[in-house]
Write the structure tokens for this entry.
Amino acid sequence: MRVIQNPAVVESLRQELDRGEWEAVALAMELQAPLLIDEVRGRRIASLYRVPVRGALGLLLEARQAGYVASLSEEFRKLAAEDFRVSARLIQDLLRAAGEEQE
């Protein structure tokens, strides 16, 4: 367990986000590390604090481009089965960026 060192930031984040989100943002700030977060409000607040944010889909694209994931479209199907919601346009853009034809 790690205690966040900047109580003013913690208090400010508590006003804006749920506990898990504000803890993640505060820790990323303190460690000067990117934050993996998909929730829109959390991403917006993190960006206001200049925390670099990444989402699951961007991470999957990077994994596909590095050869760790064989099929981005298959990973998207798995996410959809778990009720992960994303626009069809974003899916198309990511598939195109990965060099996969839309099926």
In short: The two ends are 45 Å apart (CA to CA). The longest helix spans residues 19-31.
